[in-house]
Design goal:
The protein is an alpha+beta fold. It contains 12 helices and 12 strands. Strands 4-5-8-6-7 form a 5-stranded antiparallel beta sheet, with no helix packed on it. The chain has a 4-stranded antiparallel beta sheet with strand order 9-10-11-12. Strands 1-3-2 form a 3-stranded parallel beta sheet, covered by helices on one side. The structure holds flavin-adenine dinucleotide and iron/sulfur cluster.
Amino acid sequence: MLPKFTYVRPTTVNEALAVLNDRPALVHGGGTDLLGCLREGVFSADTLVSLSSINELKGIRQATDGGLRIGALATVAEIATSEAVASRYTALTEAASAVASPQLRNQGTIGGNLCQKPRCWYYRGHFDCLRKGGDLCYAFEGENQYHCIFGGDMCYIVHPSDTAPAALGAVCRVSGPAASRSVAVESFHVPPTEDPQRETVLAPDEIVTEIVLPAPSPGLRSSYRKVRTRGAWDFALAGVALAIVFDGDTVRSARIFLSGAAPVPWRSKAAEEAIVGTTLDTTTINSAAAATVEGAEPLSQNGYKVALFEGLMKEQLEAISG
Ligand SMILES: Cc1cc2nc3c(=O)[nH]c(=O)nc-3n(C[C@H](O)[C@H](O)[C@H](O)COP(=O)(O)OP(=O)(O)OC[C@H]3O[C@@H](n4cnc5c(N)ncnc54)[C@H](O)[C@@H]3O)c2cc1C
Ligand code: SF4
């Protein structure tokens, strides 16, 4: 059952920030993740600050430098179906289209997608695990088939967002009571090595207001694909986001992120280095796929992810090489 809480619906960002500054409260975007957590008792809240009536957080707009500004309240469905996104940021369109089900995409926002809580079943269940302030990670020696193969330390979640790894090169605009700041999406999530009880760099009284995508470089091709257990809707077992800038047939630069791999969207610099300056022939693609999983540290039940990531990377690089 959903516990009782006070529900506040401000109409401006400043009003929302004033409430967050005034008392302990949680931000409510579309509620597809938050309300489930409250209902299941993962955490509690005395006050919810709904963003739904703040018009300045809505919509997708052209930036003056040729990039795109996506309001934090833009729904995942709006992004998946936006022509402005699809014409330049294929990876983001493909990622948004792969989120959950049509109903959840219509309700869930991009701000909430970036800030959502982990899906680890111990965390979501009645276990006082390390991420919830306890002493132990139950997944480490327990049921860990969907957990991470990179970046695990004390906590072994995988970051659940599909859009974060595919927002390649984007920046989050964040507002707090004192000031606004920009945080690269790449630096927005907190690894357990830094703090196993935080998912993002946001302070409790800060709000994501928009996601700013840079103007695409000439020659950019991008893609996102995830493998999941069910076709209908499911989180990524393994996902690959590519943003590759080609100069003719040669790879001039590359950004490669993995989902379903690590507690944060995981940048594979080894795969990037393996392809930059090459023409993505078969030998290079095989080396890059092997480099992707170098250093992986699977747990007792998720060793299958190593081969899955290697195969997926190979397929995605073959597809993007045209
Ligand atoms: C059945 C199911 C399947 C799902 N499948 C997927 C999937 O395949 N891929 C995927 O990526 N996600 C998936 N999700 C997760 C998630 O619900 C959606 O991704 C959605 O986009 C979350 O957005 P929301 O607006 O509903 O977030 P909310 O539930 O409103 O909020 C989520 C969290 O973000 C915080 N928050 C929200 N907006 C802001 C903001 N602007 N600033 C600061 N903090 C904020 C909230 O306080 C809360 O902690 C799934 C969820 C469910 C229930
Ligand atoms: S993986 Fe993280 S969230 Fe899951 S049980 Fe371990 S500490 Fe908790």
